[in-house]
């Protein structure tokens, strides 16, 4: 029986989400016929994996260290096949500034924006509001602020010392419209989901709390827009060099006719409320079968 180490937890701000994803994936792996061992990751991960002796690592980590190429590099050093994207694709996708450059190079529409020091952002508006401030390399909407039209000053978190996401941030002009997300599984786009929420925007609570958001699957869109979103998600996946499962997020501005890519997640959530399992089910793939595919797709490039 194939032994699968499901690595989860860790110490990033997304630890709770990772634990939920990991536990769900471990149970699904068992249902699919694998021996699944749950590993709550520490900085001694190499020793933890040496003790487990897995045939494959099912990566359920989210955020820095687990999603940005660091763990992927360690697994390649150890020679253990692992799920999801490799070192370079993980690092590129996690860095919002670098991924924007890749998207633009491959003809995908991105919001006007750029990198600024937090000190400059705290002093005055760098764009006429509305605009969005994002950490360079965080997930689950941690540290994201929307500066609304008419705001007199930047967010207080930038001036009162509570910003904890580095010395620089990405700023993008706010794109009005509908929130769309599209999964990719190997070489095929999965489906288009529209996300609606009663909160100010699709933040951490909207993503993971019961009732925080509503997922419309398939999204009620003109066929041309659906096809464009499916195509753009696959192009983003391939442009970044992703493998396995990824998920790209978009804003669709109906008035301007723009489909703007926001980011690509190389370690999409696999919690009970997550989007990838929903899209797989829509395609006729149940959760254990999805996890089986991910495990069988695992590789170690070096």
Please outline the helices and strands.
Layout: E1 3-8, H1 15-31, E2 35-40, H2 45-52, E3 56-59, H3 70-78, H4 87-94, H5 96-105, E4 113-117, H6 118-123, E5 131-135, E6 145-147, E7 168-173, E8 178-185, E9 188-196, H7 204-208, E10 214-216, H8 223-240, E11 245-253, E12 258-265, H9 275-282, H10 287-297
Parallel strand pairs: 1-2, 1-3
Antiparallel strand pairs: 4-7, 5-6, 5-7, 8-9, 8-11, 9-10, 11-12
General description of the model:
The protein has ten helices and twelve strands. The longest helix is centred in the last third of the chain and has 18 residues, at 223-240. By secondary structure, the protein is α+β, with helices and mostly antiparallel strands. It has helices spanning 15-31, 45-52, 70-78, 87-94, 96-105, 118-123, 204-208, 223-240, 275-282, 287-297; strands at 3-8, 35-40, 56-59, 113-117, 131-135, 145-147, 168-173, 178-185, 188-196, 214-216, 245-253, 258-265. A five-stranded antiparallel beta sheet has the order 10-9-8-11-12. It has three domains: 3-84 and 293-297, Rossmann fold, CATH 3.40.50; 92-109 and 176-266, D-amino Acid Aminotransferase, Chain A, domain 1 (2-Layer Sandwich); 113-173, Dna Ligase, domain 1 (2-Layer Sandwich), CATH 3.30.1490. The relative contact order is 0.16.
């Amino acid at each position: 029986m194939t032994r699968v180490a499901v690595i989860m937890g860790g110490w990033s701000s997304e630890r709770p989400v990772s634990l939920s994803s990991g536990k769900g994936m471990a149970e699904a792996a068992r249902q699919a016929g694998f021996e699944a061992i749950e590993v709550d990751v520490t900085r001694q991960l190499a020793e933890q994996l040496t003790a487990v002796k897995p045939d494959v690592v099912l990566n359920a980590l989210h955020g820095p260290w687990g999603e940005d190429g660091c763990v992927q590099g360690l697994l390649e050093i150890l020679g253990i096949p692992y799920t999801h994207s490799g070192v370079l694709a993980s690092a590129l996708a996690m860095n919002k500034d670098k991924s924007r450059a890749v998207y633009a190079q491959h003809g995908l529409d991105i919001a006007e924006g750029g990198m600024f020091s937090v000190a400059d952002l705290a002093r005055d508006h760098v764009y006429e509001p509305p605009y969005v401030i994002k950490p360079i390399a965080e997930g689950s909407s941690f540290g994201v602020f929307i500066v609304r039209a008419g705001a007199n000053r930047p967010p207080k978190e930038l001036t009162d010392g509570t910003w904890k996401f580095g010395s620089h941030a990405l700023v993008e002009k706010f794109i009005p419209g509908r929130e769309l997300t599209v999964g990719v599984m190997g070489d095929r786009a999965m489906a288009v989901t529209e996300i609606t929420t009663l909160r100010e925007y699709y933040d951490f609570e909207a993503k993971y709390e019961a009732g925080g958001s509503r997922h419309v699957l398939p999204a009620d869109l003109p066929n041309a827009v659906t096809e464009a979103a499916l195509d753009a998600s696959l192009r983003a996946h391939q442009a970044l060099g992703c493998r396995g499962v990824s998920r790209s997020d978009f804003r669709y501005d109906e008035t301007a006719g723009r489909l703007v890519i926001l980011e690509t997640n190389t370690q999409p959530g696999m919690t009970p409320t997550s989007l990838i399992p929903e899209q797989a089910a829509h395609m006729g793939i149940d959760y254990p079968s999805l996890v089986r595919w991910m495990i069988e797709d695992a590789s170690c490039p070096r």
